[in-house]
């Protein structure tokens, strides 16, 4: 990696470099200096005012074009040299591209011990404490690990901070802050996600031994990274105990409690209140879409698999959404907007939630309908409630459009080449992303034996928290602000 942090205010830096190096390296900067620097603009304005004092001076003369940020590759010769002027932005060359940071952003994210409590890691000032007039001067220095960092001195700093206050940010952190705002927010690298069909997942499936999952953090990190990429993971050699699924989920974090309980059983029983508890075929679906925050991970541990049939199958709803978008932008758009209601309506519980089938990231950068834009899919036909009455009115075409789009989507989801089928054996556990990977089950013959799965859920916050912690430990500090 080239060492290439640099700052703005090139005129003075240029001049001093000139003097130090004694070489004419500043032609371009002299040009900018002549044309755009403040004194030149002020002179021009003064001249014009003399010529025609009655005419209002054009506004742009009062706001000359800002001096362009120029990239200066740092060499040991100019490292440590402080900018001559304070400014509201600091330009830093990152991977040979000049990038500009607002001083408010750099000040706000200061992690020095006066700004962030070293023990509690809580912020000791408020964003609203930062004066609007804040400006900074930067220099580059090497930290104790010999990595390049920018060090900023402040003008008009937060009240109470003296002139000695310095803010340091590593090049690595600045790069992450620029490129991975979603990563910082959610701990997910969406560009790492691998969308799959049957062939891809068959080749890439990962099996983890229960002992390694529970005893080895590096295996756990590897497994969670895989789960984040593919949304599907299998464990084997799981002890025959109703507590095993608690131990498996507990390695990630707190289990999500729902009205089904902290853990729950999928076994056939008469007059079941949920279709999952019958031996019938259960089509591709997600769990608990009738709640505002459906579970992120679902775990199913097989305790008994002694009936014929009952195979599980899985389909990547993101892969299907991308294929749908390629095939028909109209259908894709319909699924992004048309509201579908899910409910769980029983004497004791009545859950109800309405959502479109496909949700995109609300951030402009991710607004293109590509893999990167997909945030969530909501698809759970067995738990659908009636559409809102106004949608079913005779003058509405929306429902017809939805019907056509849902036909097209379902066809891709359940195409043979999309489905990964697996019959879970006793002592095996599957973990899948309930907001992405659809699951289904073939019918089984409940009279011929026992089928019993023990299930649990884990929330997305819990999963990503663990992934970030392990990422910091095994790949070096990165996701935490200021590192
Ligand atoms: Zn600070």
From TrEMBL:
Record domain TauD/TfdA-like: where: 208-457
Start and end residues of each stretch annotated as Disordered: 42-66
Keywords: Dioxygenase, Iron, Metal-binding, Oxidoreductase
Pfam family, one: TauD
GO CC entries: mitochondrion
Gene3D superfamilies xref list: 3.30.2020.30, Clavaminate synthase-like
UniProt name for this protein: TauD/TfdA-like domain-containing protein
Organism: Didymosphaeria variabile
């Amino acid at each position: 990696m080239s060492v290439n942090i640099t700052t703005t205010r090139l005129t003075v830096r240029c001049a001093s470099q000139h003097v130090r190096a004694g070489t004419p390296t500043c032609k371009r900067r002299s040009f900018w200096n002549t044309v755009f620097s403040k004194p030149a603009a002020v002179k021009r304005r003064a001249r014009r005012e003399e010529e025609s004092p009655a005419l209002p001076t054009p506004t742009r003369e009062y706001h000359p074009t800002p001096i362009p940020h120029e990239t200066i590759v740092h060499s040991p010769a100019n490292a440590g040299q402080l900018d001559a002027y304070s400014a509201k932005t600091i330009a830093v060359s990152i991977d040979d591209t000049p990038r500009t940071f607002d001083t408010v952003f750099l000040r706000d994210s200061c992690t020095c011990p006066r700004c962030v409590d070293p023990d509690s890691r809580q912020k000791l000032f408020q964003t609203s404490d930062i004066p609007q007039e804040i400006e900074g001067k930067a220099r580059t220095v090497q930290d104790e690990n010999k990595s390049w960092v920018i060090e900023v001195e402040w003008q008009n700093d937060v009240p109470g901070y003296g002139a000695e206050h310095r803010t340091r940010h590593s090049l690595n952190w600045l790069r992450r802050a620029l490129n991975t705002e979603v990563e910082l927010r959610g701990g997910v690298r969406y560009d790492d996600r691998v969308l799959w069909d049957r062939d891809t997942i068959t080749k890439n499936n990962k099996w983890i031994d229960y002992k390694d999952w529970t005893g080895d953090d590096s295996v756990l990190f590897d497994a969670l990274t895989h789960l984040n990429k593919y949304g599907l993971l299998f464990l084997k050699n799981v002890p025959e105990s109703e507590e095993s699924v608690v131990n498996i989920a507990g390695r990630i974090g707190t289990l999500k409690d729902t009205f089904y309980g902290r853990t729950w059983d999928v076994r056939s029983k008469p007059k079941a209140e949920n279709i999952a508890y019958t031996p019938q075929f259960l089509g591709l679906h997600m769990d608990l879409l009738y709640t505002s925050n459906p579970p992120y991970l679902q775990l199913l541990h097989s305790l008994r698999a002694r009936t014929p049939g009952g195979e599980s199958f899985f389909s990547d709803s993101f892969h299907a959404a991308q294929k749908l978008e390629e095939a028909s932008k109209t259908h894709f758009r319909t699924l992004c907007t048309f509201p579908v209601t899910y409910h769980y309506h029983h004497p004791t519980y009545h859950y109800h939630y309405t959502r479109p089938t496909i949700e995109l990231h609300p951030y402009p950068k991710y607004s293109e309908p590509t893999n990167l834009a997909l945030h969530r899919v909501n698809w759970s036909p067995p738990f659908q409630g009636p559409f809102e009455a106004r949608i079913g009115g005779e003058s509405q075409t929306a429902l017809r459009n939805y019907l056509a789009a849902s036909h097209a989507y379902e066809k891709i989801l359940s195409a043979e080449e999309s489905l990964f089928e697996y019959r879970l054996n006793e002592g095996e556990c599957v973990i899948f992303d309930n907001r992405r990977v659809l699951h289904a089950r073939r019918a089984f013959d409940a009279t011929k034996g026992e089928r019993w799965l023990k299930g649990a859920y884990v929330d997305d916050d819990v999963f990503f928290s663990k992934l970030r912690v392990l990422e910091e430990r095994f790949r070096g500090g990165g996701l935490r602000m200021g590192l």
